[in-house]
Amino acid sequence: MPFLRRVTQNAAGCLLCAFLFYGATYLSSHPENPPGLPAPLNGTPPRQYTYRIVNRYYHDRHAFTQGLTYEDGFLYEGTGIKGHSTLRKIDLETGRILRRKKLSSLYFGEGITFCNNVIVQLTLSGRRGFVYNRDTFEMLRHFEYPTEGWGITFDGTHLIMSDGSSTLYFLDSATFKGERKIEVFDDRGPVRNLNELEYIEGEVYANVLNTDRIARISPETGRVTGWIDLRGLLSTEERSGTTDVLNGIAYDAGRKRLFVTGKLWPSLFEIELVAVDK
Question: Count of domains in the chain?
């Protein structure tokens, strides 16, 4: 989901207008205390994690990262901003874009995932998702949903989707129809602003908008089992230019590598999680 922080120098006017518009849309569509969410818990707080940087890779600093995933040795990225939204296949080692598809200027691109050998991409307020051939990026079909589209991932059975609230939606992977939803919470109550998603070894990892934290979420209960604190990952000096918020999680299941980046960041990081002793 977009948010006004800094804009690229090359497209400042366009991005500024987009940020203002979509920021206002967000505030009006996501009330501070939505009904029907779990009350704060008095149980054990989620486990806390920090990180260790394993590798650092080039990332296109003009990519407004909305979705990120890793498949068969390549990164795939979905970028946002109307008129600039794309789907990309990227060489991890060099950051070179191997294939690119530009979305219609009607749509603000959002999260992406692989599902049943195709690529699925959401759009923000168009309430329409697209399904692509994984090799050619040819659009195969589209589908509709009743909310905004933010992040999406696939657990092997269901597509799991966020809309910027504290809700995760589970969609049938063949029909794209909603089947159930869960509310996400920790020991302090609802966790809102759920953004980019990645399914990793039985848990949903979620960026939380405008924070440097990733939530590890049980897909059965919605409870946050852990918080990953990524403060300092991108240095203050690098953040002082045109960079925006942390957003983008990808996982190499074969080699158990975790990748993270942000919107307009110059780097993508491979990290290892480090548990914080209590």
Answer: 1
